[in-house]
Automatic annotation (TrEMBL):
Residue ranges of the TM segments: 45-67
Topology in membrane: Multi-pass membrane protein
The protein, known as: Mitochondrial import inner membrane translocase subunit TIM22
InterPro entries for the chain: TIM22 (IPR039175)
């Protein structure tokens, strides 16, 4: 393969894709994908999708733990009083509702947090612990603002503390992989 420096999607000489070799096209596509994933919109989309999937699994798990839920129809006080087919139908529909709701919430929170963190990092032109803390505060306050200033303050403090704790753990010495033969 030729030694070609890639900038963006095309090689430095701006040749069209039809004139590139297959290896150059693959490298240009991989470069474009990496650049997108490292951009603010890419990070926001990936966080939203990851949060949606994680929230769906979390909602499914929590719904499966809530058994024998009161139904509310006449003469039936608990789901265990119904025939098995109706029990299963109610449980699966409840699991679907809870999974969908949890997935939407986790995806929304992931997107908001990631977008705010990336924006703060871009504004400050630094990648440090304070970006996550500020993003947590802004996200927590923004999610709780409809409940009033006290809720916004508590949301800010709670999200900032959680975000700081996670960032400290991820940046800490314990999270680094062990050295290998390629490290200096």
């Amino acid at each position: 393969m030729n030694n070609v420096i890639f900038t963006g999607i095309r090689p430095a000489d701006n040749r069209p894709y039809s004139e590139m070799t297959q290896e150059e096209q693959a490298a240009a596509g991989a470069d474009a994908m990496i650049n997108f994933m490292q951009s603010c919109p890419g990070k926001t989309i990936m966080s939203g999708v990851s949060g949606f999937v994680l929230g769906g699994f979390f909602g499914l798990f929590m719904a499966s733990m809530a058994y024998d839920v009161p139904v509310g129809s006449e003469g039936v006080k608990h789901i265990s009083d119904l025939p098995l087919k109706q029990q299963m139908k109610l449980q699966f529909s409840d699991m679907g509702r809870r999974s969908w709701s949890s997935a939407k919430n986790f995806g929304y929170i992931g997107m908001i947090y990631s977008a705010v963190e990336c924006s703060v990092e871009s504004l400050r032109a630094k990648n440090d612990l304070y970006n996550g803390t500020a993003a947590g505060c802004i996200t927590g306050a923004g999610l709780a603002i409809k409940s009033g200033p006290q809720a916004a303050l508590l949301g800010c403090a709670g999200f900032a503390a959680f975000s700081t704790a996670i960032d400290m753990y991820m940046r800490g010495e314990a999270s680094r992989p062990p050295p290998n033969d390629y490290d200096d």
